[in-house]
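Tutorial, part two.
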Amino acid sequence: MLDFTSALYLGMRHPADRLAPWDSLSLGKPAALREPPGAQALAADLAALQGCEAACLLPSTLHLFWDLFGMLAGERLVILADGASYAIARWGAERAQALGLPLQVFPSGEVALLRRLAAGWRHRTGRRPLILADGYVPGSDRAPPLAAYAAIAQQGGGHVLLDDTQVLGVSGAQGGGSARLHGLQGEALIIGASLAKGFGVPLAVLAGSHGLLRRFMAHSQTRVHASPPSAAVLAAAQRALVLNARQGDALRARLAARVAQWRAGMEAAGIASRGGSFPVQRLPGCGHLQDALRQAGVLALAQADGQAGTLTFLLRADQTPGELEQAMGLLEHHIRRRYERHI
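Running the prediction step on this input gives:
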């Protein structure tokens, strides 16, 4: 079975026998009392990778955004959320809204409107913008205009908060994600991301300025009331960074080649594929083909998108050119057969 439903974009997997040993999965203590062994050094390495001053590790992005927005709810801010931002970050924003922070959603990529909204809130209420966006929206042909978002946030004395889960490990210098890719830096920048995609590790990292991270660690509730990441997860993340330093650029080049192969094949077959140069490739109107492809040995994701649905293929560095050719051939066959039945 050819599997195009896994988001392990670089093909990183971490078998137990490849990980450094640990004495105990957990210390039985919250991170606020004592960090797990190796956590601080790993956080520093992840901060440096993303071009940020400091970072903090959390079990998931749900913990991260719930906690972060809870802290930011006490500031004179207004949340301006890109309409394509991911659900988990939006849940955090809704928590802040419930705590009294205004929340307004704007259409994705509409820079001029965002600028007017930020200026209007600042003029009427004195609130600074907290601009929420994803580093990349799966299926989009290009990233959101993050540099423009960051400039608006900085001009308004606020923040741009990126959910960089899709991008970390996959793009940017050394796989450092959106900040490295778009040249973002400074006090206004906050990044929340999971390592589960590019690096294959279910671990979240919050990165930003020294001041922001000091405040977060002083006010964090999940670091008091929830268990920290386990020793096994930390060992997997440490291995992922070692692999990234040794072969990450080669893996990213291989992934880029797979994406280029896919897009060239789709173009040659006359099949529309959305996703640009990113490994998430969506075929509008093809969701009905999921069952036929599964029966032929190809797994893809069918997602609701209007009446016809979209078929999504997740490409990975560990897939071979032959596997992509096989999947594309089957896809073209079934699309042509359905077309011929209707003429």
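The first helix runs from residue 39 to 50. In part three we will examine how such features are distributed along the chain.
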